[in-house]
């Protein structure tokens, strides 16, 4: 009884033990599989190999079992695995369409007395593992895609030259995340920012704190995007200007601030420097006695310095409202416009100094009805491409200078006249003396020398008297119809002997294209004579002198080109000054008076024209004058 | 130098030289005499008028403009006013070279105008001879 009962008990015990064994196998296998599949960093081959390795132990006859796991193109199997008739297979397909399978085989020939090779429990176990693999690969793929996207996003965020941040909309605007650029700007690593709830508030510049916090409060109330520029203090004490823009968004039901912070210190510094420089120049412009004016290209005033009130009696505001002909006398208007037109023309030739200036004397109206003479130095303001975009002019009161010049001219005229009388006596007496009979050759050469000296002195006195007359405002010009070609020809005739003596080739072109002018013939002839004799003086023997004339709708142009020693660039602006002589002129023609070109300028300007020189050392010189066609 | 001998035996031509600067006067007088002219001289405007009113009338007057006592313009005006002297050709000899001066002198009856500052005596003689050639009796 007892033995039967024990046997029966043994049988039940053995059955229970078998069931427990199966259960333990299943749990062990599933646990092992779950452990294996926890780690998403493993690649597919590793995972498949591990799963295949633990499958035989989960089967009923582990000693004759082998297994294989497959996913896509990858498969791993236990060492002894081969296809047999006795096989259990579970297949799976992920939601991305990838297929896999796990196989368990028994290697020994299946004993015929055994009813079924695999237990239902084994089937269920294998299906569970296949399901775990499916879920694992699905998860892994989804996470990889997510990580890739995040990596891309992070890279993007961390490369833009701005701090991207996320903050809580609390009183401190405490930072949840700040991109690494914040370290570059403020010297504090991004991680520290998110760890310190007061980080942002602490870094705010004390002088800006109240304003910014007020702006933040207002912003939270209205819900509008936050936008502000303020200073922060970097860890090393530097003051950094930032532009901060943020919007409120909701992240899983929690409101957060997402914002961008830009370092604008350079821009602020540039703005400050600009304001400082403008303030300085404004101070300068407003305190000097000269008047500074800025014009657009249509000669409309866009700025005039307050000093204009001292010059003209009008305030700057009154002057701004004036037209050009309310500012300048008609003759001065003309002169200013003509000078501008010529400068623009020269501009197109391209070979001019962009920083050059030109000077014109203009007569300006005063509030009390009188006029004041000013010397105006003009130059172009240029745009970024270097094109003239406006004009700046500096007017200087020269009425006192003019008055002194008049006094001086009167004085010169008087004394020159007093000089002429004794000089006339000398010249004439010498002329008589040289004809006296029985002079020795030596005496004759003395007298010739004295005559030459007297002639030079006489030239000088004549030039001075001419200059004094031209400088004087009272000189009356006597305009007549004059043919520029004919005047030039008469000069060339007079100088014929000088050309021959030096063997110079002289040509004249373009005279037929020039219409007659209304000018004072004597003075214009004098100007031409001065320019031609200069050319002769500074051109070496057998050189060339070419005179060319032409005209456009506004003015007549006359030029003489020589093949002489040229004129150094730095002398150009002085050439037409009284008594000036170019540094290389004195060696060639020591007897020059330094008055010829000065007289020429006075004459040409008297007729409303302009004269200038274009030359380089060793390349000859071109002297040009222009005269208005309707003076 | 021997023109009078070569041509018809004409009496020497008489020139009145009105010039206040004694050196210019002296030089011009010497040159004119060397050319065979008879020369009367006056140092100022009044003297010039007296000389013209005298028994020997000049054939030509060389007249300075800026002079003490009576200016050249005044002398010229009076000479041209008086029918007895209006026919005597006058050449102005002056330091004034402005066109307006020349025009004024011409309007007052001067036949020619020489700017002393640039003229040589040779030119002076040439002008005198040209003028006299036109009035040869």
Provide structural commentary.
The complex is a heterodimer of chains A (about 625) and B (about 140). Chain A starts with a helix and ends with a strand. With about 625 residues, chain A is of the alpha+beta class. In chain A, strand 18 and strand 19 form a beta hairpin. In chain A, the strands form five sheets. In chain A, strands 6-5-9-8-7 form a five-stranded antiparallel sheet, with helices on both faces. In chain A, strands 11-10-14-13-12 form a five-stranded antiparallel sheet. The mean pLDDT of chain A is about 85. Helix content of chain A is about 45%, strand content about 25%. Chain B is an alpha/beta fold. Chain B has helices at about 5, 20-35, 45-55, 70-80, 100-105, 120-135, and strands at about 15-20, 40, 60-65, 90-95, 110-115. In chain B, helix 3 packs parallel to helix 4 (about 70-80). The interface of A and B includes residues 417, 424, 431 and 458 of A.
